[in-house]
Design a protein that fits this description.
Layout lengths: L1 H29 L3 H5 L6 H4 L2 H12 L4 E13 L3 E3 L3 E16 L9 H18 L3 E6 L4 E15 L6 E4 L5 H7 L2 H7 L2
Antiparallel strand pairs: 1-3, 2-3, 3-5, 4-5, 5-6
Length: 192
Amino acid sequence: MFLFVGFSAFAQADNEQIKADFQKYSSALKSRQYTQATAFMPDNLFDVYSKDKLVQEMKQTFESEDTEVRINAVDIVRLDQKIIVENSGIYVPFIFVQKFDLKYINLFDATDDDQSRNSTTKFIVDMLNESMPESTITFDKKEEVFKVDSSKNAVAIKLNNQSNWKFLVIEPLLKNLMDRLLPSTVLQKIKL
């Protein structure tokens, strides 16, 4: 009985720390502190992908002259069982939801009629759905913004020598990269 209570309390403490560290990570993204956000990513990511390039890509995504992105929420909705990899660390697959608004600057011309506007917004919704199949995308006509509600898979990682959790968002299109960053036992659980 005491052993079960001890494991349960330990697991709960880990889950709370994962949520707290993930909120710090998402806060850095919301406030556009991209270099600070990379501190919450696994170090081995930067062995195969340039940190400077990633920071530049984040900046281009969130600070484009053609679009405005406003992150409304980033919340963990499910934490899975932790996976302990001997001589490596602890891995916890999880699912998070991100909600954001995407506004295209100068989306419509003053001469556009309703049919043209509807056609344009339908095309963009279809394009966004294709690029983010795990998302629900709607268009708010009043605000002229695309509302995106996206569910993503990720892994919380705590290597043996680190005190904070690091996060790797699972991108199926980057399967080769994921294969290089995560142990095979973890990859089997997340089913890329």
